[in-house]
Design brief:
Elements (H helix, E strand, L loop, with lengths): L13 H13 L7 E2 L2 E6 L2 E6 L2 E3 L2 E3 L6 E5 L14 H23 L4 E12 L1 H4 L10 E12 L3 H14 L1 H7 L12
Antiparallel strand pairs: 1-4, 2-3, 3-6, 4-5, 7-8
Helix pairs in contact: 2-4
Length: 189
């Protein structure tokens, strides 16, 4: 009788991770994913986004029986009601979340146990761009600063190499560092 054990350093099933990598190497079409979100404006600065199904690994994923619901709003100083983080704060969350999963998964794959991991993020934004007051000021972040505090059971050179690899492979960091083609259509009712 053969017993199969699954290692889960950092809460990551390394066996499943290895199987996923092997499956994609054998069939590159399995790597193509399409994520979706639907947002409804609720008034003022408040909107609600629902995230549920997506296409990935060659099929429609139906594992989420209920949608994730994300609230978006503005603070009162920006005429909102604080019903949720604003959009640029959500971007900071997306970046931190992406870096966290990338760090945990890659560390697990490399046999590095993470004892603690924390990200502190700040982004500077000039409202002149958002309000259309100055055409030469971009409406988004002028810069974003990320500080990663990582305590792991590996020598410093391996931790530095891990961190460099995570930055090279982070989808959200890539989105922020490189322009992405975005097509926008207006469908009037």
């Amino acid at each position: 009788m053969t017993t199969i054990t699954h290692e889960t350093p950092n809460g990551v099933d390394v066996t499943q991770l290895d199987q996923t990598v092997e499956a994609i190497q054998n069939d590159p079409t399995l790597a193509i994913f399409t994520f979706r979100a639907t947002n409804d404006w609720l008034g003022g600065g408040h909107s609600r986004t629902r995230v549920q199904g997506f296409w990935g690994a060659g099929q429609e994923d139906e594992s989420r029986t209920e949608p994730f619901v994300l609230e978006g709003d503005e603070p009162p100083v920006l005429l909102g009601s604080n019903r949720g983080p604003n959009a640029v704060e959500a971007v900071l969350h997306a970046l931190a979340s992406c870096l966290a999963v990338g760090t945990a998964y890659n560390a697990a794959a490399q046999g590095i146990e993470i004892r603690s991991l924390r990200f502190d993020l700040e982004g500077d934004l000039d409202l002149h761009g958002f309000l259309g007051l100055t055409p030469d000021v971009r409406p988004g972040f002028q810069n974003v600063r990320v500080t990663c505090q990582l305590d792991a059971d590996a020598p410093e050179d391996r931790v530095v190499a891990l961190w460099e690899h995570v930055q090279k492979t982070s989808p959200v960091l890539d989105l922020l560092r490189h322009p992405v083609p975005v097509s926008i259509d207006l469908a009037q009712k």
